[in-house]
Amino acid sequence: MKKTTLALAAALLPLLSQAQDARIEAKVAALMKQMTVAEKVGQLHQLSGRQFTGPASSDYADKLADIRNGKVGSMLNVKGVADTREIQALALKSRLHIPLLFSLDVIHGYQTVFPVPLGESASWDMDAIALSARIAAREAAASGIHWTFAPMVDIARDPRWGRVMEGAGEDTFLGSAIARARVEGFQGKQLGATDSVMATAKHFAAYGAATAGRDYNAVDMSNQQLFEVYLPPFKAALDAGAATFMNSFNTLNGIPATGNAFLQRDILKGSWNFKGFVVSDWGSVREMVPHGYASDLADAAVKAINAGSDMDMEGYAYSQHLEDAVKSGKVKMKTLDDAVHRILVKKFELGLFDDPYRYSDAAREKAVLSDPSHRAAALDVAQKSIVLLKNERKTLPLSREPRRIAVIGPLADSQRDLEGGWVVQGERAKVVSILDGIRSHAGKAEVSYAQACASGCAGSEGFADAVATAAKADIVVLAVGETWDLSGEAKSRTDITLPGQQEKLFSALKATGKPVVVVMLAGRPLVFNTIADQADAIVYAWFPGTEGGNAVANVLFGDYNPSGKLPITFPRSVGQIPLSYAQYNTGRPVTDEKNVVYKSAYIDSVNTPRYAFGHGLSYTDFKYSGLALSSAAMSPDQKVTLSFDLANTGKAEGTEIVQLYLRDMVSSVVRPLKELKGFQKIHLKPGEQRRVSFTIDRNLLSFYNSQLAWGAEAGDFKLMVGSASDDIRLEGELKLQSK
Ligand code: NOJ
């Protein structure tokens, strides 16, 4: 009976949603019939509140007047029940009473701050990542927000670019899975539920490949790279239902993304059939003028909307010029109507026409923002994000026996730096610092502290005191890294070594002869060769959020066995950038690092990274064995199962992220040496063993050929299973037969 009811409900759902779509269509059509061209243009105009996340713009009082007059469709950077209610009330005084959309960069938490997105990505844990987005949505949606400008799904392989912090790292397969998880987390089961916000897949497209890692810079790339590496996470976000897309500041092969019809019309709204709307990035419509693509703001407006940019964020191109462009015929009414229609549909789907204040409920805001389960989740996700890069002679976990632990470093007692960038509503006072985390977890151990140098570590005046503190201790925990404001938007760096004198500080402490455990905070891969060579242990904690200090302490004392794996390659030097595990063999591969004459190599560095994509240690050991394929060959319509045994051979319970890579050995377009094609997180008790399996089908073996056709070519494939991209434990071979 129950089964029948469920089946019936499942069958009815699509019908119900079709009926709902039809109802919304009718309402949008009726509303649009009443709208003047100016009112239509108003829906495409997005303004910032008093807070700025881009270059400053017009007067706030003028903005309020425009809202009152129906000339604004959406506001960003307004938050909280009180403010959103006040501004929504103004919009409702306009002739047609069309409610505003409130949007915000809720990137890694609203009030409860989760690890920065790159950090969360190191968890390779889709449930954790989705939960983080869910909680961020719940909190934001209780505070009047309808729409977040997240997730950023840009693949990024250049850690000079400060925005690597906001994405999922370098890999397309992992990045696509994370894009899906984040969209599902933000949007929940249904748009319009008051604990969900609309997601934005950004920045469409290829923004992460800014030349030389300099923010906002031009991008030149082959269509193969674009389709294969950079676009799939966007497609994954779309398939997961992303309500909106944001275009990007960069040019792509000479055409600004904002004015790029190939990206927005042909791909996104054409072959991908995206039904949501596209918002420009901050002022990116007007920036087509300095790009040299539009002659003036009026021309920029025409080019952007014709290319498929629906909403103009703080650009004033649409508000000032679109009405005339429609009158003169440079923009067809149909084009304007399509953009307006897309936006109004979302406003209806969110239920704003039924109740424009449904996301702005003071009681809900109070209850949701103080929900203690959110902090517990932030701790869980932060722990899962931490990567143990090095652990010599089992330095970690620390013992709590009566021992003296010296906690040292400019970031040890910082709260702000644990939060990272894009903190919209964090409660700084509640952030647990690394020092506080260690103190409260230390048990009988005695904890001493020396800052050694202030934030940025420009001076070394405090080093002597720090060395003296270290000398009296049994072990040193040194907290160093980037301060929060060194990564993020407009934070590109040519030098990604540890800022200031932090490596010198490490050397001074190391010279005491005490074991030194380094805890590093950062929003990107840093270069720290002395520490990498000489530290006894290295814990990479990213910017771990509100519960960061507790998460770090749990890892240090072994209450949590680390399982994070790098989602991005750590180079040895800036000179190796861009560096990805998914590189090509070349015609002159290095086979012997000692003999690189006339090889694809550097004469002053090895090719290998400092820490490879997928790297991350545990307090236990995992043994891989017994690889088997259900068949050594497959036809294009078959599937093959690859399986192997994973055993926990150490003494602690632990989680391994097993990784499946493959290489297409000979193909019409050469393929990378390794491509990630699967991963699983496996938790095992000491002595426990499990058979792990992956299914390989044609899709996993496919790529874009020179005609940009997706497909698999017959031939040999190498299959690799391991603990990191440079720690392959088992290999197999598979033949794909032609039909
Ligand atoms: C510019 C950034 O590129 C984008 O990611 C962000 O969402 C907007 N500013 C709004 O703050």
Question: Would you write up a description of this structure?
Answer:
- The chain is an alpha/beta fold.
- Among the domains are: 35-102 and 332-371, no CATH class; 252-330, no CATH class; 380-575, 3-Layer(aba) Sandwich (Rossmann fold), CATH 3.40.50.1700; 622-736, Sandwich (Immunoglobulin-like), CATH 2.60.40.10.
- The protein is built from 22 helices and 26 strands.
- The strands form 7 sheets. It has a 6-stranded mixed sheet, sandwiched between helices. It has a 5-stranded parallel sheet with strand order 4-3-2-1-10. Strands 18-26-25-20-21 form a 5-stranded mixed sheet.
- Helix 16 crosses helix 22 (548-556).
- The longest helix is centred in the first third of the chain and has 33 residues, at 2-34.
- The two termini are 45 Å apart.
- The relative contact order is 0.10.
- The chain binds 1-deoxynojirimycin.
- 1-deoxynojirimycin (NOJ) binds at residues 53-54, 76, 105, 149, 202, 281-282, 489.
